[in-house]
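Input/output pair, single chain:
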Amino acid sequence: MTPGRGFEERAVREEEVLDRIDEYRRRARTLLREERITMAHGAGGKATHTLVEALFLEAFRNPLLEPMEDQAVFALAGNRLAMTTDSFVVSPLFFPGGNIGDLAVNGTVNDLAVSGARPLYLTAGFILEEGFATADLQRIAASMARAAAAAGVQIVTGDTKVVERGKADGCFISTSGIGVFERDVKLGAPEVRAGDAILVSGPIGDHGITIMLARGELELVSDITSDTAPLHGLVDALFGATKAVHAMRDATRGGVATVLNEIAAAAGVVMVVDESAVPVRDEVRGACEILGIDPLYAACEGRLVAFVNGEAAESALRAMQAHPLGEGAAIIGTVLAAPRGLVLLKTQFGGTRIVDMLVGDPLPRIC
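Output:
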């Protein structure tokens, strides 16, 4: 047997083993072992995924839910639509750069935008605590109205409930949204492939660190503000430059690291990220160092991660940088075929380490 032939046969055998492992993972039933819900179950990491897959997916399983994207895509009356829902329990309710109201609108708009759909209509449900100041509720409603107008959507229906004093935390908001596809695109984790470039639309971690500092639990002073913003305009600019976009996600709970892990696992690929290429503001990096947090896990509310054919990466980057919400965009890595399901970080010190998905989130209740 020639050396070249032996290498090829070994590669084939390794590929067969990987295929069998992937099939086992698909068939293996995720188990929810905890007897009580913990804060980690709402943090967007491994505990959240276990809860969703083992409990909610098992209970509600259907073809529209099974892709486990941030929105469902379906056809109705000749139109292709996207629908999403989200809840917001951020603490504090008001923070530098925004509040729970504009966060609720932008978060739902962005879940629709990254699917490639144009956001149209939102619902808004309010759970209010007895004794909550009506002046604060007016501020929240006004900010929602401004955010909806800026995003070109309408809040068309909603609901209000009030619970006894001490049974909530002032105000919780639940929003749902629906959008229409005006372009022929199919985005999602399964579309990501080896050779794709990984782009982020700007500096990461602003929102998560803003919320942590706004809580006043740490004696840190900074001018960091939340990056909460609607991303549909940036998405339009990206598609105006290239149709070679395979997937997009907004990097909210769990940050960019969680997005990369989700896509790597679902697509059966490996993400290789250059740490020196990841845009992080100096103030955010400094706060993260003090808090012991990796910026890759810090939440954003106005940043997206895009997976684009490598040949179109520079065109996509220029289009994003030309938009006000993408001025700090960067190509941070590439997608390879193996080892499947991993996120690898090339560190600034010349090494390589695995970036895993956290069980919980070091910054709870950031959205």
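The chain has a mean pLDDT of 91. Residues 81 and 180 are 5 Å apart (CA to CA).
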